[in-house]
Design a protein that fits this description.
The complex is a heterodimer of chains A (113) and B (123). Chain A is mainly β and 113 residues long. Chain A has strands spanning 3-7, 10-14, 19-26, 32-38, 44-50, 56-58, 64-68, 73-78, 87-94, 102-103, 107-112. Classes of the chains: A mainly beta (113), B mainly beta (123). The A-B interface holds A 32, 34, 36, 41-46, 49, 51, 90, 94, 98-101, 103-106 and B 4, 6, 32, 34, 42-44, 46, 49, 91, 93, 95, 97, 108-117, 119.
């Protein structure tokens, strides 16, 4: 069965520290992979996406993610956390040609001053 | 670019009434769009896929007669929650799918652009 898993429902980091959010997928076909951020009571904003081009993808706000086929992972990182990074982050995967997204459960990021 | 709006942002209605939520793409056109619902502290759950000019395809467990979707143009779709009940209270989010980099064998890439969401509370 095809699925997407985000490890860790909550991550707390100090301002300036590394942010690492984990995402693994299960699929028999190469997927498209996305990371979205959601601020309270708002819709989702695309941070970055992987669509079978470069395996290291750079996104907005200093985030990047690396697609590792052997590990079926697409972890999101940011070298130095900022207070404005506090939000909910969703990994999403598209397995088919119907453009549907399957979302992970989400990871809440809090940033300590 | 690629801005999606939703109206209203918040709505409170009485049990048994119907509520219509509008979703518009402001600066682009898209054939395919999606409706999601999100419960507090949970992920997004896909309700239905809609292609302009066609009937919507609903996910398993979503009542098509309760959640009416009209997708009459490439920039406007509406979701009507009919005979709403308190358990329908949720955050409803729409998205439009934008194809990118069209080639001879189809789109090279795509991504969904999301509306800001509508908070529905049924009393």
């Amino acid at each position: 069965a095809q699925s997407v898993t985000q490890l860790g429902s909550h991550v707390s980091v100090s301002e300036g520290a590394l942010v690492l959010l984990r995402c693994n997928y299960s699929s028999s076909v190469p997927p498209y992979l996305f990371w979205y951020v959601q601020y309270p009571n708002q819709g989702l904003q695309l941070l970055l996406k992987y669509t079978s081009a470069a395996t290291l993808v750079k996104g907005i706000n200093g985030f990047e993610a690396e697609f590792k086929k052997s590990e079926t992972s697409f972890h999101l990182t940011k070298p130095s956390a900022h207070m404005s990074d506090a939000a909910e982050y969703f990994c999403a995967v598209s397995f088919s040609n119907d453009y549907k997204l399957s979302f992970g459960a989400g990871t809440t990021v809090t940033v300590r001053a | 670019g690629a801005v999606v709006s939703q109206h209203p942002s918040r709505v409170i209605c009485k049990s048994g009434t119907s509520v219509k939520i509008e979703c518009r793409s402001l600066d682009f056109q898209a054939t395919t769009m999606f409706w999601y619902r999100q419960f507090p502290k949970q992920s997004l759950m896909l309700m239905a896929t809609s292609n302009e000019g066609s009937k919507a395809t609903y996910e398993q467990g979503v009542e098509k007669d309760k959640f009416l979707i009209n997708h009459a143009s490439l920039t406007l779709s509406t979701l009507t929650v009919t005979s709403a009940h308190p358990e329908d209270s949720s955050f409803y989010i729409c998205s439009y799918n934008l194809l990118q980099g069209l080639g001879t064998s189809g789109p090279r890439s795509y991504e969904q652009y999301f509306g800001p969401g509508t908070r529905l509370t049924v009393t």
